[in-house]
Amino acid sequence: MAEITRSTGASLCSTNPPPSIFCKFTAGEDLPACSQITVKSDGFAWRAAAADFVIGMNAVAASSGEAVGVTRDQRYFYASTIVPGTKYYPSGTVAGGLADAATSGNAVVCIGLSDGRVQQV
48 CB contacts (<8 Å, ≥6 apart)? Predict the structure, then answer.
């Protein structure tokens, strides 16, 4: 299994029409842009661990206590190492990150596209 190192320029791809925000939450911790997000029993958004249920990704970074929008079914520029057609899973070692193999029986959250992009599933 390989962890995918998120690019420092990771971001939501420009789309037309503009992406819809699936839901807004309060960040329970600092959330880098393009993190896999889960919501814990406290109702706050957190970076997902491998065993967590991923509800989506955040388009922009948010500090703990700030509002954060979570998207579904969007395309993100993620990393130059993304391989088209590859299934990506929540990382087992990097909270909020992606890996190219499952751990803890987790589900596919993204599919690799060209040019370092991923499509949320």
Answer: 35, 36, 37, 38, 54, 90, 95, 96
